């Protein structure tokens, strides 16, 4: 097992603490290593891949990806939580960070160049809830943790935005996206709908965590 990057500097009153969903991501990315190395073996024409972690939180996933999966890539994190943005940069730095990593404070996929992302990693706020995090009240209170968990109807409000924009975000030549779902997000229905739009969808693994079943789907456009 590859070691998990240290996040001992993180303040978990302000930033999502790496949890079972995060660790499922790390474990399955490790299993994806042969697939990803094959996919990005020839950098002579298209250059280094751009890896984006949406909602990077503590930055542990993107740092793990840099340290163990594709060290020569370029890396970007995004988060709406300003504390998460600072923490992710620090996580990269204290774990043999790369110069080629930056974090953008933005809402979901706003401000990304079309068709620029080669690898997308997303552990979304997936818990079904009546509401989403409120930007105005988080600005007032400084508490952004609701954004880490609350996913609105079916827990899919944020993930659906990303799925709808996937075609626009991912690079045409070699884009591959990894998105985490819980069972209540109806991942089988998501797979069917995305296949109907021309995506190849593969469940790369799942894990039972207490009452929840978490899975990660891989999306590729052939
Ligand atoms: C479940 S946490 C995952 C954090 C980290 N990637 C991990 O795996 O530990 C979801 C992250 O998405 C961020 N997030 C939620 N809504 C967002 C939005 N609208 N735009 C950008 N980031 C958002 C949260 O602040 C949080 O850091």
Explain what the structure shows.
- A 7-stranded mixed beta sheet has the order 3-2-1-4-5-7-6, sandwiched between helices.
- The chain has helices at 20-31, 33-39, 60-69, 82-94, 135-141, 146-149, 157-169, 187-196; strands at residues 50-54, 74-79, 101-105, 119-122, 176-182, 199-209, 212-221.
- 41% of the residues are buried.
- It contains 8 helices and 7 strands; from the N terminus they run ααβαβαββαααβαββ.
- The radius of gyration is 16 Å and the shape is globular.
- It is of the alpha/beta class and 222 residues long.
- The chain has a single domain (49-221), classed as Rossmann fold (3-Layer(aba) Sandwich).
- 34% of the residues lie in helices and 22% in strands.
- S-adenosylmethionine binds at residues 16, 18, 22, 25, 55-58, 60-61, 78-81, 84, 107-108, 123-125, 144, 147-148, 158.
Question: Can you lay out the helices and strands and say which pair or pack?
Answer:
Elements: H1 20-31, H2 33-39, E1 50-54, H3 60-69, E2 74-79, H4 82-94, E3 101-105, E4 119-122, H5 135-141, H6 146-149, H7 157-169, E5 176-182, H8 187-196, E6 199-209, E7 212-221
Parallel strand pairs: 1-2, 1-4, 2-3, 4-5
Antiparallel strand pairs: 5-7, 6-7
Helix pairs in contact: 1-3
The structure holds S-adenosylmethionine (SAM).
List keywords for this structure.
222 residues; alpha/beta; Rossmann fold; 7-stranded mixed sheet; 8 helices; 34% helix; globular; binds S-adenosylmethionine
